[in-house]
Amino acid sequence: MMGRLWMAVPMIGLTALSPAAVLFGSLVKDGNTGLDGSSLIAYSNADDDWMLVARPSGQSTLEHAVVRPASGWLGDSSDYRWIGAESVRGNPGQDLPGDYVYLLQIALPGSFDPSTQLAKIQGRFASDNVGYLFLKAYSLAGSGYAGSLLNNSGASPSTAGAWTAFDLTLAPSQLSGSAGNYSVDLYFVVNNAGTANSNVGLLVDFTDARIQSIPSEPVPEPATLALGAGALAAALARRRRRA
Ligand SMILES: [Ca+2]
Ligand SMILES: [Ca+2]
Predict the structure, then answer these.
(1) E strand or H helix at 118, and its extent?
(2) Of 25, 43, 56, 123, which has the fewest beta carbons less than 10 angstroms from its beta carbon?
Protein backbone atom coordinates (compact mmCIF):
# COMPACT_ATOMS: atom_id res chain seq x y z
CA MET A 1 0.00 0.00 0.00
CA MET A 2 2.79 2.38 0.94
CA GLY A 3 4.57 1.51 -2.30
CA ARG A 4 1.58 2.51 -4.38
CA LEU A 5 1.23 5.84 -2.65
CA TRP A 6 4.92 6.55 -3.10
CA MET A 7 4.66 5.73 -6.82
CA ALA A 8 1.85 8.25 -7.21
CA VAL A 9 4.04 11.20 -6.21
CA PRO A 10 6.28 11.39 -9.32
CA MET A 11 3.21 11.02 -11.55
CA ILE A 12 1.74 14.21 -10.08
CA GLY A 13 5.04 15.94 -10.88
CA LEU A 14 4.91 14.77 -14.51
CA THR A 15 1.38 16.07 -14.92
CA ALA A 16 2.50 19.51 -13.79
CA LEU A 17 5.19 19.55 -16.51
CA SER A 18 2.74 19.01 -19.39
CA PRO A 19 1.88 22.06 -21.55
CA ALA A 20 -0.81 24.34 -20.20
CA ALA A 21 -4.09 23.17 -21.66
CA VAL A 22 -7.41 22.39 -20.09
CA LEU A 23 -9.11 19.16 -21.08
CA PHE A 24 -12.48 19.76 -22.69
CA GLY A 25 -14.13 17.41 -20.18
CA SER A 26 -12.92 19.52 -17.24
CA LEU A 27 -13.53 22.92 -18.81
CA VAL A 28 -16.37 23.73 -16.43
CA LYS A 29 -14.48 24.51 -13.20
CA ASP A 30 -10.84 23.89 -14.21
CA GLY A 31 -11.03 26.31 -17.15
CA ASN A 32 -12.38 29.09 -14.95
CA THR A 33 -10.02 31.87 -14.06
CA GLY A 34 -8.63 31.45 -10.56
CA LEU A 35 -9.40 27.73 -10.24
CA ASP A 36 -7.05 24.75 -10.42
CA GLY A 37 -9.13 21.62 -10.81
CA SER A 38 -11.96 22.66 -8.52
CA SER A 39 -9.73 24.42 -5.95
CA LEU A 40 -9.25 28.16 -5.69
CA ILE A 41 -5.78 29.52 -6.46
CA ALA A 42 -4.28 31.83 -3.84
CA TYR A 43 -4.09 35.54 -4.63
CA SER A 44 -0.89 36.60 -6.45
CA ASN A 45 -0.29 33.03 -7.70
CA ALA A 46 -0.53 32.27 -11.40
CA ASP A 47 -3.40 30.41 -13.02
CA ASP A 48 -1.18 28.33 -15.32
CA ASP A 49 -4.03 27.31 -17.62
CA TRP A 50 -4.22 30.90 -18.81
CA MET A 51 -1.38 32.59 -20.67
CA LEU A 52 -0.89 36.27 -21.32
CA VAL A 53 0.33 36.28 -24.92
CA ALA A 54 0.40 40.04 -25.51
CA ARG A 55 0.46 43.16 -23.35
CA PRO A 56 1.27 46.86 -23.68
CA SER A 57 4.90 47.62 -24.34
CA GLY A 58 6.60 48.29 -21.00
CA GLN A 59 4.19 46.27 -18.88
CA SER A 60 6.43 43.75 -17.13
CA THR A 61 4.53 42.30 -14.19
CA LEU A 62 3.25 38.80 -13.49
CA GLU A 63 0.54 38.74 -16.09
CA HIS A 64 -1.97 36.05 -15.30
CA ALA A 65 -1.90 36.18 -11.53
CA VAL A 66 -5.02 35.77 -9.44
CA VAL A 67 -5.96 39.17 -8.11
CA ARG A 68 -8.48 40.53 -5.66
CA PRO A 69 -11.45 42.30 -7.22
CA ALA A 70 -10.97 46.05 -7.53
CA SER A 71 -13.63 48.60 -6.69
CA GLY A 72 -16.65 48.14 -8.98
CA TRP A 73 -15.74 44.62 -10.12
CA LEU A 74 -17.89 41.52 -9.63
CA GLY A 75 -16.98 39.67 -6.45
CA ASP A 76 -15.14 36.35 -6.66
CA SER A 77 -16.59 33.07 -5.42
CA SER A 78 -15.70 29.45 -4.70
CA ASP A 79 -15.96 28.82 -8.48
CA TYR A 80 -13.84 31.66 -9.91
CA ARG A 81 -11.43 34.48 -9.17
CA TRP A 82 -10.15 37.34 -11.29
CA ILE A 83 -6.85 37.20 -13.12
CA GLY A 84 -4.98 40.32 -14.12
CA ALA A 85 -1.66 41.91 -14.56
CA GLU A 86 -0.34 41.63 -11.03
CA SER A 87 0.82 45.18 -10.69
CA VAL A 88 0.06 47.55 -7.87
CA ARG A 89 -3.57 46.78 -7.12
CA GLY A 90 -5.88 49.44 -5.88
CA ASN A 91 -7.91 52.30 -7.12
CA PRO A 92 -6.97 53.43 -9.76
CA GLY A 93 -4.24 50.73 -10.06
CA GLN A 94 -0.98 50.86 -11.98
CA ASP A 95 -1.42 48.68 -15.09
CA LEU A 96 -0.59 50.37 -18.38
CA PRO A 97 -3.41 51.25 -20.78
CA GLY A 98 -3.69 49.11 -23.92
CA ASP A 99 -4.53 45.57 -25.01
CA TYR A 100 -3.90 42.51 -22.84
CA VAL A 101 -4.46 39.15 -24.59
CA TYR A 102 -5.32 36.12 -22.46
CA LEU A 103 -5.26 32.67 -24.08
CA LEU A 104 -6.88 29.46 -22.85
CA GLN A 105 -6.10 26.33 -24.86
CA ILE A 106 -8.80 23.68 -24.58
CA ALA A 107 -7.77 20.17 -25.66
CA LEU A 108 -10.55 18.23 -27.40
CA PRO A 109 -10.68 14.44 -26.94
CA GLY A 110 -8.37 12.55 -29.31
CA SER A 111 -11.40 10.84 -30.82
CA PHE A 112 -13.05 14.15 -31.81
CA ASP A 113 -14.13 14.13 -35.47
CA PRO A 114 -15.28 17.54 -36.84
CA SER A 115 -17.00 15.87 -39.81
CA THR A 116 -19.49 14.13 -37.51
CA GLN A 117 -19.29 16.05 -34.23
CA LEU A 118 -19.80 19.56 -32.88
CA ALA A 119 -18.17 21.11 -29.84
CA LYS A 120 -20.26 23.61 -27.87
CA ILE A 121 -18.99 25.87 -25.11
CA GLN A 122 -21.03 28.17 -22.91
CA GLY A 123 -19.92 30.56 -20.24
CA ARG A 124 -19.80 34.14 -19.08
CA PHE A 125 -17.13 36.69 -18.45
CA ALA A 126 -16.45 40.12 -17.04
CA SER A 127 -13.52 42.38 -17.82
CA ASP A 128 -11.83 45.68 -17.02
CA ASN A 129 -12.18 47.31 -19.41
CA VAL A 130 -14.00 46.05 -22.54
CA GLY A 131 -13.18 42.45 -23.50
CA TYR A 132 -13.25 40.96 -27.01
CA LEU A 133 -13.60 37.22 -27.62
CA PHE A 134 -11.75 35.47 -30.47
CA LEU A 135 -11.22 31.87 -31.56
CA LYS A 136 -7.97 30.59 -33.07
CA ALA A 137 -6.46 34.03 -33.78
CA TYR A 138 -6.98 37.59 -32.62
CA SER A 139 -6.51 41.16 -33.75
CA LEU A 140 -5.84 44.28 -31.71
CA ALA A 141 -7.26 47.79 -31.72
CA GLY A 142 -5.03 48.82 -34.63
CA SER A 143 -7.23 46.67 -36.86
CA GLY A 144 -10.43 47.39 -34.93
CA TYR A 145 -10.55 44.00 -33.19
CA ALA A 146 -11.57 42.46 -36.52
CA GLY A 147 -13.06 38.98 -36.18
CA SER A 148 -14.15 39.33 -32.56
CA LEU A 149 -17.14 37.13 -31.76
CA LEU A 150 -18.28 39.52 -29.06
CA ASN A 151 -18.27 43.28 -28.64
CA ASN A 152 -17.27 44.07 -32.19
CA SER A 153 -20.58 44.37 -33.99
CA GLY A 154 -23.01 46.28 -31.84
CA ALA A 155 -23.06 43.91 -28.88
CA SER A 156 -23.10 45.52 -25.47
CA PRO A 157 -19.54 46.03 -24.26
CA SER A 158 -18.48 43.78 -21.43
CA THR A 159 -17.87 45.44 -18.09
CA ALA A 160 -16.25 44.57 -14.78
CA GLY A 161 -19.48 44.90 -12.84
CA ALA A 162 -21.78 42.49 -14.74
CA TRP A 163 -21.54 39.20 -16.65
CA THR A 164 -21.49 38.99 -20.44
CA ALA A 165 -22.59 35.56 -21.71
CA PHE A 166 -21.07 33.64 -24.61
CA ASP A 167 -22.49 30.58 -26.38
CA LEU A 168 -20.15 29.06 -28.94
CA THR A 169 -20.80 26.33 -31.49
CA LEU A 170 -17.41 25.72 -33.05
CA ALA A 171 -17.08 25.37 -36.80
CA PRO A 172 -14.28 23.06 -38.02
CA SER A 173 -12.44 26.13 -39.34
CA GLN A 174 -12.38 27.56 -35.80
CA LEU A 175 -10.44 24.61 -34.38
CA SER A 176 -6.67 24.53 -34.04
CA GLY A 177 -4.47 21.46 -34.48
CA SER A 178 -5.21 18.42 -36.60
CA ALA A 179 -6.95 15.05 -36.42
CA GLY A 180 -6.35 13.34 -33.08
CA ASN A 181 -5.01 16.56 -31.59
CA TYR A 182 -7.64 19.31 -32.01
CA SER A 183 -7.85 22.21 -29.61
CA VAL A 184 -9.97 25.29 -29.14
CA ASP A 185 -7.81 28.36 -28.69
CA LEU A 186 -9.90 30.92 -26.85
CA TYR A 187 -8.51 34.46 -26.78
CA PHE A 188 -9.85 37.26 -24.61
CA VAL A 189 -8.46 40.62 -25.67
CA VAL A 190 -9.00 42.99 -22.74
CA ASN A 191 -8.48 46.67 -23.40
CA ASN A 192 -7.33 48.67 -20.41
CA ALA A 193 -8.96 51.96 -21.33
CA GLY A 194 -7.81 55.55 -21.13
CA THR A 195 -4.36 57.07 -21.16
CA ALA A 196 -3.52 56.75 -17.46
CA ASN A 197 -2.58 53.57 -15.61
CA SER A 198 -5.46 51.67 -14.00
CA ASN A 199 -6.48 48.12 -13.05
CA VAL A 200 -6.88 45.42 -15.71
CA GLY A 201 -8.65 42.12 -15.10
CA LEU A 202 -10.53 39.18 -16.56
CA LEU A 203 -13.07 36.87 -14.93
CA VAL A 204 -14.30 33.76 -16.81
CA ASP A 205 -16.82 31.17 -15.65
CA PHE A 206 -17.63 28.23 -17.93
CA THR A 207 -21.13 26.83 -17.51
CA ASP A 208 -21.28 24.06 -20.13
CA ALA A 209 -19.05 22.11 -22.53
CA ARG A 210 -20.64 19.50 -24.78
CA ILE A 211 -19.79 17.40 -27.81
CA GLN A 212 -22.76 16.50 -29.99
CA SER A 213 -23.25 14.45 -33.13
CA ILE A 214 -24.00 16.48 -36.25
CA PRO A 215 -27.46 15.47 -37.49
CA SER A 216 -26.86 13.28 -40.52
CA GLU A 217 -27.96 14.54 -43.95
CA PRO A 218 -28.44 12.49 -47.12
CA VAL A 219 -25.08 12.02 -48.84
CA PRO A 220 -24.95 11.46 -52.64
CA GLU A 221 -24.25 7.85 -53.57
CA PRO A 222 -20.82 7.26 -55.19
CA ALA A 223 -22.62 6.09 -58.34
CA THR A 224 -24.55 9.40 -58.53
CA LEU A 225 -21.33 11.37 -58.12
CA ALA A 226 -19.67 9.38 -60.91
CA LEU A 227 -22.66 9.96 -63.18
CA GLY A 228 -22.58 13.70 -62.31
CA ALA A 229 -18.90 13.95 -63.17
CA GLY A 230 -19.46 12.03 -66.41
CA ALA A 231 -22.35 14.27 -67.43
CA LEU A 232 -20.30 17.39 -66.69
CA ALA A 233 -17.40 16.11 -68.82
CA ALA A 234 -19.80 15.35 -71.67
CA ALA A 235 -21.34 18.84 -71.44
CA LEU A 236 -17.89 20.46 -71.52
CA ALA A 237 -16.94 18.32 -74.51
CA ARG A 238 -20.09 19.46 -76.34
CA ARG A 239 -19.27 23.12 -75.56
CA ARG A 240 -15.71 22.67 -76.84
CA ARG A 241 -16.99 21.07 -80.04
CA ARG A 242 -19.41 23.97 -80.61
CA ALA A 243 -16.69 26.61 -79.95
CA1 LIG B 1 -7.45 26.36 -14.08
CA1 LIG C 1 -8.94 49.66 -16.26
Answers:
(1) strand 117-128
(2) 25
Using alpha carbons, select from 121, 62, 102, 65 the residue that is nearest to residue 191.
102
Q: How far is the CA of 97 from the centre of ligand 2 (A)?
A: 7
Q: How close is the Cα of 212 to the center of ligand 1, in Å?
A: 24
Domain ranges of the chain: 20-242
Residues with CB under 5 A from ligand 1 (ion): 30, 35-36, 49
What 8-state DSSP symbol labels residue 31?
T
- The structure's pTM equals 0.79
Beta carbons of 107 and 34 less than 8 angstroms apart: no
To the question of domain 20-242 being in CATH 2.40.160, the answer is: no
CA of 33 to the centre of ligand 2 (A): 18
Encode pLDDT of 84-139 as tens digits: 987 666 667 889 999 999 999 999 999 999 999 999 999 999 999 999 999 999 99
Give the number of the ligand closest to the Cα of residue 98.
Answer: 2
pLDDT category at 14 given cuts 50, 70, 90 is: very low
Average pLDDT score over residue span 205-224: 80
